[in-house]
């Protein structure tokens, strides 16, 4: 579940195709992020987990190695596999963000997240206005149109909005901003969740004018105007995701 778009699929309750390896990763990962598996505790031994998850030792070991790479656990000889604190988690990892979303992130985390998003997205907008190509501009306007076309369909709408932000990242010509697209996807999802909860049936109108202003600024290569339009978009998302 680490490919772009996989987080958005959870809006419709659809999970990515799963094998035994991804099943074990998902069960343990969500257990840790949700707090069911407490920080500092030692996971059950191999035999117990093999029995609990119905997988082979090889599958279990590979799953634990993946979780260790994400910073969720640490394996030590003669001690076992210990659950690590959040300060060690890779919070830029799409799968970790998906577990955070499923667990229901607390307000303090969302505030911290939007602080980081603001810094990255404003810089992305400015750089995209400077460096975008004609082809990237065409893609941006395509996704703006798609965003309005599928405005009543939550998952396609979220995908269109994410693709617009991902294309801005590509247009920035900055490899680090381009690599941060998991944060953009998480932001799109978190801004949409409250709208779905309150029964909204149309999702594009509130920000459509701001997006049009943003792309107009990117088109005429006006970085300050692009950043200002992006700031308006982010303010709307933050107000929706964080509440009053």
UniProtKB/TrEMBL annotation:
SUPFAM superfamilies for this protein: GntR ligand-binding domain-like, Winged helix' DNA-binding domain
Keyword DNA-binding applies: yes
Pfam assignment, any one: FCD
CDD domains registered for this protein in UniProt: WHTH_GntR
HTH gntR-type domain boundaries: 18-86
GO molecular function: DNA binding; DNA-binding transcription factor activity
Keyword tags: DNA-binding, Transcription, Transcription regulation
Top-level division of the source organism's lineage: Bacteria
PANTHER family xrefs: GNTR FAMILY REGULATORY PROTEIN, TRANSCRIPTIONAL REGULATOR, GNTR FAMILY
Protein name, per record: FadR family transcriptional regulator
Species of the source: Fertoeibacter niger
């Amino acid at each position: 579940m680490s490919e772009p778009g996989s987080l958005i699929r959870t809006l419709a309750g659809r999970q990515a195709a799963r094998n035994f390896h991804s099943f074990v990763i998902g069960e343990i990962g969500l257990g840790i992020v949700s707090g069911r598996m407490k920080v500092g505790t030692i996971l059950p031994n191999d035999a117990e987990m093999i029995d609990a998850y119905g997988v082979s030792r090889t599958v279990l070991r590979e799953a634990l190695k993946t979780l260790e790479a994400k910073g969720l656990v640490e394996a030590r000889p003669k001690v076992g596999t210990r659950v690590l604190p959040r300060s060690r988690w890779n919070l830029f990892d799409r799968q970790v963000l998906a577990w955070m979303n499923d667990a229901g992130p607390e307000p303090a985390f969302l505030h911290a997240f939007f602080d980081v998003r603001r810094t990255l997205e404003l810089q992305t907008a400015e750089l995209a206005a400077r460096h975008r190509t004609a082809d990237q501009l065409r893609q941006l306007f395509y996704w703006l149109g798609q965003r309005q076309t599928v405005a009543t369909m939550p998952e396609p709408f979220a995908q269109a909005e994410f693709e617009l932000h991902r294309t801005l990242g590509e247009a920035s010509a900055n490899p680090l901003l381009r690599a941060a697209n998991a944060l953009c996807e998480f932001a799109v999802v978190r801004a949409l969740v409250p709208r779905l909860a309150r029964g909204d049936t149309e999702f594009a109108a509130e920000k459509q004018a701001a997006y049009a202003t943003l792309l107009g600024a990117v088109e005429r290569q006006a970085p300050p105007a692009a950043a200002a339009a992006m700031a308006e978009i982010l303010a709307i998302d933050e107000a929706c995701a964080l509440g009053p």
